[in-house]
Amino acid sequence: MKILHVCLAAFYIDNYGYQENILPKMHKLQGYDVEILASTENYLDGNKLSYVNPSVYLNENNIKVTRIPYINYIPHFIAKKIRIYNGVYEKLNSFNPEIIFLHDIQFLGIHKIIKYVKKHPNVKIFADGHADFTNSARNYISKYILHKIIYKKCAQTIDPYVTKFFGTLPCRVDFFKNFYQVSPEKVELLVMGVDDTLIDSDIIELKEKLFSKHGIKEQDFVVISGGKMDKKKNIHHLVDAIYELDNPNIKLILFGKADKEISKLIHEKIKHNSIIYLEWLDNLQIHQYLSISNLCVFPGKHSVLWEQSVGLGIPGLFKKIKGHQHIDLDGNCILLENGDKNEIKKNIIELSSNSHKYKKMKEFTQSNGKKYFSYYEIAKRAINE
Prior knowledge:
Blueprint: E1 2-7, H1 19-29, E2 33-38, E3 41-44, E4 48-51, E5 55-58, E6 64-67, H2 76-82, H3 88-95, E7 99-103, H4 110-119, E8 124-129, H5 140-158, E9 162-167, H6 170-180, E10 187-189, H7 203-214, E11 221-229, H8 235-245, E12 250-258, H9 260-266, E13 275-279, H10 283-291, E14 295-298, H11 304-311, E15 316-319, E16 333-336, H12 341-353, H13 355-372, H14 375-382
Helix pairs in contact: 1-14, 3-4, 8-12
């Protein structure tokens, strides 16, 4: 069976661990004939928006990627906002997919998808959504013009042809239902997860290697956090907590890139002996460091690292945010009310000193988190398998 993953509503970044990277990988591993149709929108250095040339190539998973250009008969800044492309229909006809998986629906080129499906009524369409009010519709133009008029029209136009709309967070399920107002009975939660094909089979050997490299002792309690660090992620509160605890047996592994504001806040404190700052890690390295840690701490805005951590069996502290409680499987984590340094300190002290409570959390996460947040299993649910 042929599956076309369509990434025309936003960026597509090679060699990353985002959903649009991992779902095609999993579908290929499951025996499907998979290709990706993508925009030229990309990111450089992890956080710098850029545009690359149209091209056709094999990605890191040996999946054919076709990057198509925006139309050129209107100004580029308009074309890239409303997302109209050259070559959508031609790609559909050349590949002849039986399943089309839309990674978001906010592109006017979606009418070419409809044109194709009208001629091939047996083709199934699944569409996910990554938009919610924390990352979208945050100013007047975005909310009332782009989302409420243009993107809502995209959603409602494709609605009759879609088998399922998947919100990737509970709040994104609500966004589909309440803001775009698509058929509510078609909307479900499809969580993001962890690429469980990257999990190291010999965690003991990996742990010994990384502990030795960073001077971590076997009895140390290892906390981990990272990603793109800005003030909304509250990573500076975690750094403050570890700095003030000043406990040689509690270590923090911190990775990722901090913006200028956070860099100023944590610049001196990350030099503390209990803090190991690794800057940017690739997807495999993130998995490895998560796997050898005792506790993940994400005291602010949501990150895909939440699901990756739990999917690797790591208990966590997560900020309690409305529409994000999917991370709580009723035993794997503690939800932080404020995410400030005192609340973080209190919970780290309790879990690092109460072996019974921590062991119970660990066992629960190992048995439940790995299953629920496995991308191999999520990929099956994504196409109703």
